[in-house]
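Incident log entry.

Two folding requests arrived from the same account within the same minute. Monitoring flagged them as a possible duplicate submission, but the sequences differ. Recording both here for audit purposes.

Request one:
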Amino acid sequence: MKAAITPEGIICEALRCKNALYEGAFPLHVFPTQLANIVRATNECLNFPVDYIASSLCFTISVCAGNLFAAKVKEGWTERPILYVALIGRPGTNKSHPLSFALQPLFNYDNQMAVLHKTRWAEYEQAMSLTKKEREEQGMDGIAEEPVQKKFVISDITPECLAFVHDGNKRGICLYADELASWFKNFNRYSKGSEEQFWLSVFSGKPIIFDRKGMKRSISVKHSFISVIGTIQKGILKELAKGDRNHNGFLDRILFVLPENLDKQYWNKKELDAHISHDWQKITQKLIDREYSVDESGNPISKEIRFESTAMQLLMEWQHENTDLCNQELDEQLGGIYSKLEIYAIRFCLILQIIRWACDESGLDFIDETSVRGAIELIAYFRKTAQRVQGIIHESYSLEGMPTDNIKLYRALPDDFETAEGIEVAATFGMSPDSFKRFLKDNKERLFENYKHGKYRKITSL
């Protein structure tokens, strides 16, 4: 029996096709209409890859939310929307511009606060130049402490300096590194492993306490909130996995954004409507301007948002499936990544609920089923990109030291091929059939799996 054709069905199918055209692998349809339109417009007019701009917008919302919100899974278990994000692509694939566009509202806020801080600092210095009696006479006796500059975005600073900034911005901050390599390459600047351990700790929102000799004052942040975002080239991924980072859980904490199509795009003559940037500023401003209470130490009191019963049931069903995947996965690194994705699933549930509230499509009383379904789709995307990244890293190690021609041949081969097909590809590189067969034999189990007589599968592929 054929399904009845209805107007609603036609509209839904049209929207599904439209989403598929724009988003590719990234599930853009999980975003509210207003945010999805920003992604589509910047993709059409500015050639922003959907994956890059969508992930960057999502990241910015999470930073605006900061410590103001927490998803409450159960008593004693809450998650704040902390994200570590890496946009991957070769030079010229338009990674930096989408990120800058997404972060612009935070830059605007920081610039405004910098001007205000300059004024307040001048007032503070003037007050400190006076005696106590003179300050009282001039009505400046209330200026007793150094003014603290409010900001959201920081770049390339040590944990000590970062903690100092965070202490004055307990709502939350983010580390923005246009070249993410500058972040992790400096981990051992002063003491081996200390900075890496710092980032492992703040990923979970653990307290920051610094009380060292020579510091102006001790630093105490009850709930740390430091998200990280930046760009990285494919060739640098191997550096990111160096040392223990592919084994101690550090790499598991990074969400990799890797579009399927990384071809450089032609310029076009389409102009971006002014309302697009205005809409984005308005969405983020709703969060930035949200009032909140603080405790006696100045730490924000988070609004804890529970899950609706049906939403929690859906999330638990997904967690059971994910647990089975973890237990079945033979690759230890992938197993660790799948496990960390459970934490990110909760965080994305919260982020999507906040995004939908900021776009006037939902409330903040509970995390509902729509946000959970969207989070599950986002996690499916990041699971796939994690698998691809691990493949790139493993390939880098497997191909290390091989002649350039052999590397090119390996990359030209299909993921699955028969010996005859491989011989044809090898011929284009000037390699004889006997030499190719020897190449297969020498690299069996290292680069190729001989899963059936005369049939091979690349062990690591992009």
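Request two (distinct sequence, not a duplicate):
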Amino acid sequence: MNKLRVGYLSLVKGSWINAGLEGQRQDALKALSELGAEIVDCGLLVQTEAQAQEVCCKFEEARVDIIVAHFITFSLGTIVPGMAVRLRKPVIFWSQPEPPMNGGRIAANSLCATNMNAHALWKMGLKYSFVYGNADAAMPELARQLKVIGCLRDLQRMRIGSLGGRVPGFYTSNFNELALREKFGVEVEGITLLELIEVARSIKGDELAGALKQIKGSCQCKVSDEELNKGAALFAAFDKLQKKHRLDAWSVRCWPEFSDIYGIGVCHILGCLTGSGAPAACEGDIYGATAMLMVKALSGSDAFFCDLISFDEKGDTGLFWHCGAAPVSLCKPGCVPQLLKHSIIDGGDKKGIAVEFPLKPGAVTIIRIGETRNGNGYRLLSIGGEGIDTSQMLHGTPLTVRFKRPAAQLVNQLIDSGFEHHYVLCHGDITKEIRHMAGMLDLELIEL
């Protein structure tokens, strides 16, 4: 994806001008330049509406994604609201601590400027957020917020391939296509199982050999060569269709007919797709695929599409698991991923290919995107926790997570609130990013 374009707007008021303000502006630009975004500099200490008008034209021409309104001192209350209305881009208000107070006049009044301007944007229903601190101190939070804005921008361009629709009886995989497009910008392309399988059956030679190398990776293989070749052809076919339909992620009807038609289960191939940068959700879950795209962008970690299958009140833990579609990047250190017959398809141990390993420990965030009960909006679940050392206690890919609140209370709230049974887990604590995203999208946020 292209770099985020950040419009940097340095604001002052004439009655607060002093020789040190340009130095603060340059310090801010230097700090911003290290965040990996493309900085579109306003080029001056903006004092007047006329200057702001010229800057607004510059930002408009550069097609900035967000405005960072840096109140080096107090500023006129008309500049930022006018620019936000014209550009229709979110604003990050940046205020600095007041310089030392030694009995003289107020030196900057930066925080008050944010307070005043935030009121105006709030009244107009425009999106904004806030960071506080001098150049170095403000950067971690500013970087976090820019990451969220980048994720939201990129989601507007994302396309998910819905392969075969959803699995039977899983109302939790239902989705509203137009509402998804309106709220998140994500487009869905319907693709038939027939198209995928016909392409898979055409894969041969070097193309097959290359795909075989990718799906085997560092795994220990305990399935037949025929199953591995079928899996490799399937992976190559997904890749071809991904390019043909310009897809960024997949939602796959992985049962009941898939293994009957093609001869193997698709589980490990979905994990390979996720690990190669195209998140793949099981059981036709479009919102699950959307959440996988989201957490990948925010955490940098491959996502784990999973169920919560048990909990322990004594340890305040829950066991997250799925049957064999996790990317091998999530394997616990010291363990070797195993390619096996699937433990459930046709009663178990009849057809490959599933991957098995316990997931690596560490801080995790678990989310779920779902519709509100009346269907007129979306809600976003966010659970923070710590993945702890987990054994291969059952077939599939398990991870035990220690919650930050009593496990029974958390599970009861999930059930009472009617959440869907699919969750998306990533490594890393992105709960602040999820909170910010919910605010930017006007989602109902539930934090557990």
